[in-house]
Amino acid sequence: MAEIGSPNPLPPFTGVWDPGASVPVDESVPEAARRHLGYGCESVCLPYAMQDGYSRALALRKTPAAILENEVLRATFLLGLGGRLWSLVHKPTGRELLYRNPVIQPANLSVRNGWFSGGVEWNCGVRGHSPQTCSPLFAGRVDDPRGYPVLRLYEWERIRQVPYQIDFHLAPGSPVLQVHVRIENPTAETVPMYWWSNIAVPEEEKTRVVVPADHSFNFANVGKLKRIATPFHEGQDVSYSSRLKNSADWFYYIPRGTAPYIAAVNGEGWGLVQASTAALRGRKMFNWGIGAGNRRWQEFLSEGYHPYLEIQAGVAQTQYECFPLEAGASISWTEIYGHLEADAVAVQSPEWSVAQRAVEKGLAALVTGETLAREDAAHQRTADLPLAELAHLGAGWGALEDLRRRHGGEAALSTPARPFPENSLAEEQRPWVRLLAEGFLPDLPERPRGDRWLVQREWRQLLEGAVTREPNRNGGSWLHLGVMRRAAQDTAGAEAAWQESLRLGETALALRNLATLAAHRGDPAAAALLWEKAHRRDPELFPLALEMVSGLNAAGRHADALARIAALPEAWQTHGRIRLQQAVAHHALGDIDAVKRFLTDSTLEIIDLREGENTLTDLWFAVMKDGEGKPLPPPRWVDFRMMGDA
Predict the structure, then answer these.
(1) Given this model, what pLDDT does residue 17 score?
(2) Closest of 348, 453, 475, 360 to residue 400, by C-alpha
(3) Sign of the four-CA dihedral 495, 498, 502, 507
(4) Of the candidates 643, 645, 642, which has an alpha carbon nearest to the alpha carbon of residue 633?
(5) Which whole-number Å values give the CA distances from 498 to 235, 424, 462, 481, 504, in the listed order?
C-alpha cells in the first residue's frame, strides 16, 4: 500500500464555478431518460480538502478491516478507506469474485483526487468517485433479531449534508451478501442526490457482462449521448469488454417492471452477479479498453498488468445526473452479491436472450424476487435497530453538526442506529466548537490543516455574525469567511473578506486565495504576482509552490517559472508536476531539446495524472516527429490516452 498522505491545506476552488456542463443528447434518447440529465452535476469539492499527498512508494501497511463470514462467503471491508468491500470469496470453490488489486495505489480519479481501484466502492452524494473513498467511515455491529451479526457503515456526507448508512447481512448458509442502503435528507430543501455502487471484477478474454436490457446509452464516438442496441453495436458484441478498443461507459436501459441485475460471467460459466430491489434501477459497464494508453492506466493503478472492468448499479439512469431527494425524505434499497454459476455455452451464445435466460436461471438459484422483497422489508426494520457495538470511528463532522443543531434548537442528527459520538471530534473541529460555545472563531495557524474547511450555510451565518460583532478580533475568521463566500459564488464578498484578513495580518493563504480569484477573473498577470508573494510568505508548502509555477506559465512568464523552479528544493524539482511545468516553459521558450529530454526520460512519472488527462501526449505530438514531420508513437510512460490513438 502507498501512503495516502496529508490533505492539501489549500482550499480547492477549481470546479466550484462550473454549474454542470449540459449533456449533449441525440434524438434517440427518450424524453423520460433526459429529464434529470445535468441536474446536480456541478463539480464541487469544498468543504472537503483535496487528497493529493499520496506517494507511489509501496510497503506493507496496516489498515483496519472488518470481516463477515458464513459457510459460503467471506467478505472483507476496509473501514479506513471508505468501507470498500475489498474481497468476496466463495468458500466452497475458493474463488475470489471481485477484482482484488494486489496493491492499494492512490491515483487522481475521485472528487478529491485520491482514489484506488479494486473491490466495491460506495459512492454517495455528488457525481464521481466518493469524497470519502480514501477516508474512514463509522462502523459497528448490529444484532439481527434472527440471530446473526450485521455490519453497519455510516457517515455524514458534507456536500449534500445528508447521513447515509449501509447494512451488510450475511445470514448463516446464505449464498449471497445482502446490502441494505438508506440515505436520509434531514434538511428543509430538496437536494440533488447521487448513488452508484462500483464493482470491480476481473476481465478475461471471454468475460461477458449480461443485463436484462436490449439498449444502452453511450456517447458512441458521436459526441452525444445516444441510445444504441445491446449487445450488438456496429457489428460488434459490446458485452465483451476485452474486445473494446477505447474506454467507455455503457448505461443500460432496463425497462421499468424488470428486476434489475448485472453479471460478469467468464468463459467457464461462473462469476459475480449483483441484483437489487427496484429503487436501484441503473446499471452500467465501464471498460478500460485495450489500447496502449488504456493498458498503461491499469498498470499505473496496480503493480503489473491486472485487467479488470467495472459493473455498476445506481439510482439514476446514468452518471450524468443526480436524482432529487425531497426535504425530510429518505430512500432505501437492498442489493445482493453472489457467486453465479450458469451454463457456459448458453452465456456465450450469440443469441442475447439465451445468455440472459442462463444468467437469470443462475440468479434464481441464489435468490428469487419474492425472497429479495421479503428480505428488503426485514432490513428496513433492522436499519432502525441501535448499534450493539461501535467498532470504528469516522470523521468528527457529524458530531459537530449535532452540536450545531443542538445549539440552534434543531432536531438531532445522531440516532441510536447511527450515532455520531462526541469522542469522534478531533483537532479539525475544535475551532468550530469554540465558535458555538464562545461566539468567535479562534485565529487559524499560518498553515491550518487542510480538512478544516466548512462552507455550510448555517455555519457561514454564524461566522458572519461573529465578524460583524468583532471585526478586528483576528484575520483567520475573515480568511475562512472568504472561503465560505466564494463557495457560495459571492466573489466580491470573498475578495473583501480576504482583504480584511490581510489588514489584520498577512498570510500565505489569504494571498493565495486572492491569486485564484484573479486567475478566475481572467487576470493571470495579477494572479502570478499574488502567488509569488504567497510563496515568499510560505516557501515550504509544496502545493503552493506548484500553483505559483503554474501561474507564472499561465501569465506567459516562462523564464521566471524556470528560475523559480531552479530555486526550489531539489526533491521538489524532481516531482512530476514540477517537471511538467518546466517542460511547458521550455516549450514556450523554444527549447525543444529540453522538452525532448523530458519526454524521453523513462523514469518520468506524474503521480497525480488525472483520468482522461492528455497533457503528456499533447506535448509529445507537438515536438516528437520523424524526418517527414509525422508524429512518432509515444512510449508507455507518456501514453495515458483513454481513446486509443485519437
Answers:
(1) 38
(2) 453
(3) negative
(4) 645
(5) 59, 31, 18, 8, 10
How many angstroms separate the Cα of 207 from the Cα of each of 213, 237, 242, 275, 287? 18, 12, 7, 18, 12
User: What single letter denotes the amino acid at residue 40?
Assistant: G
As beta bridge partners, residue 333 has 181
| 565 sits in which H/E element | helix 558-566
DSSP notation for 230-287: SSEETTEETT-GGG--S-EEEEE-PPTTSPPEEEEE-TTSEEEEEEE-TTS-EEEEEE
Query: Do residues 197 and 213 both lie within one domain?
Result: yes
pLDDT over threshold 90, residue 154: yes
What's the pTM value of the predicted model, to 2 decimals? 0.96
Query: For residue 299, what is the enclosing H or E element?
Result: helix 292-300
- At 115 the pLDDT is 98
Query: Given this model, what pLDDT does residue 645 score?
Result: 60
Nearest to 584 by CA among 552, 608, 612, 611: 552
| Calpha distance 626→429 (Å, rounded) | 58
Q: State the residue for C-alpha cell 471481485.
A: 98
Do residues 117 and 302 touch, judged by C-beta distance below 8 A?
Answer: yes
What is the per-residue pLDDT for 397? 98
Q: What is the dihedral of CA 378, 384, 389, 392, to 10 degrees?
A: 100
Question: Do 404 and 286 belong together in one domain?
Answer: no
Q: Are 340 and 207 in contact (CB under 8 A)?
A: no
Same domain, 301 and 419: no
Distance CA 166, CA 120 (A): 13
pLDDT tens column, 471-522:
999 999 999 999 999 999 999 999 999 999 999 999 999 999 999 999 999 9
**CB atoms inside a 10 Å sphere around CB 132:** 27
- Do 292 and 264 lie in one domain? The reply is yes
Lowest mean pLDDT among 235-239, 264-268, 448-452, 591-595: 448-452
CATH of the domain at 149: 2.70.98.10
The total domain count for the chain is: 2
> Can you spell out the DSSP letters for 40-53?
T-----TTSPPB--
Look at residue 502 and tell me if it is in a domain. no
Rg (CA), the chain: 26
The verdict on 403 and 259 lying in the same domain is no
Question: Which of 35-39, 92-96, 178-182, 494-498 has the weakest average pLDDT?
Answer: 35-39
The amino acid occupying position 242 is S
173, part of any domain: yes
Rounded Cα gap, residues 10 and 374, in angstroms: 49
Domain containing 402 equals: 396-424
Instruction: Give domain status of residue 130, yes or no.
Output: yes
Q: Return the amino acid letter for 385.
A: L
Beta strands in 71-229 (DSSP E): 73-78, 84-90, 95-96, 107-110, 113-115, 120-124, 138-143, 149-157, 162-169, 176-184, 191-193, 195-202, 208-210, 215-218, 226-229
Q: How far apart are CA 98 and CA 308, in angstroms?
A: 9
For 537-543, what is the mean pLDDT? 96
